[in-house]
């Protein structure tokens, strides 16, 4: 199974990489993980222009190989860790590739949200994008632990 994160983000710091790698090392061996960073659009313009430009770059990454697309947005559906695990288990059993999309500081444009198979919100809190990525990878690891009945999730 292939799992990819497509994120609008600058280069990760050392502690962010360490956090990601800590959880990625614990993923099941059958999961092939890929990460694609898209540089934030900083050339000015309206928020809509920024979102459209960043979302066009995301669309180019997504068009390379078909997959089930999960976008993250504060207006998406909020779910618990157990619900997320159940959802991922179903998606992983039905699809060979899953793409997780994280927008830039202004979020994703409407077209990207509408074209996603699912839109999820992890919290009503505003999280820095790089920190969110660490939280996302931890929650995926937690989902695997729940699915496999491991004691990590209590």
CATH-level-4 superfamily name = SPOUT methyltransferase, trefoil knot domain
**Contiguous helical run count:** 5
Envelope shape: globular
Percent of residues in beta strands: 15-25%
String of helices and strands: EHEHEHEHEH
Number of discrete domains: 1
**Secondary-structure-derived class:** alpha/beta
Helix content: 40-55%
Low-confidence stretches: none
- By CATH, the topology is Alpha/beta knot
CATH level 1 name? Alpha Beta
- CATH 2nd-level architecture: 3-Layer(aba) Sandwich
Radius of gyration: 15 Å
Strand order of the largest sheet: 2-1-4-3-5
How are the SSEs ordered, and which strands pair?
Blueprint: E1 2-8, H1 14-24, E2 32-38, H2 47-62, E3 68-78, H3 81-94, E4 97-102, H4 110-115, E5 118-121, H5 129-147
Parallel strand pairs: 1-2, 1-4, 3-4, 3-5
3D architecture notes:
The chain is α/β, with parallel strands linked by helices and 154 residues long. The protein has a single domain (2-147), classed as Alpha/beta knot (3-Layer(aba) Sandwich). The chain has five helices and five strands. Strands 2-1-4-3-5 form a five-stranded parallel β-sheet. Helix 1 links the parallel strand 1 (2-8) and strand 2. Helix 1 (14-24) packs parallel to helix 5 (129-147) and helix 3 (81-94) crosses helix 5 (129-147). It is globular, with a radius of gyration of 15 Å. The two termini are 26 Å apart. The mean pLDDT is 93.
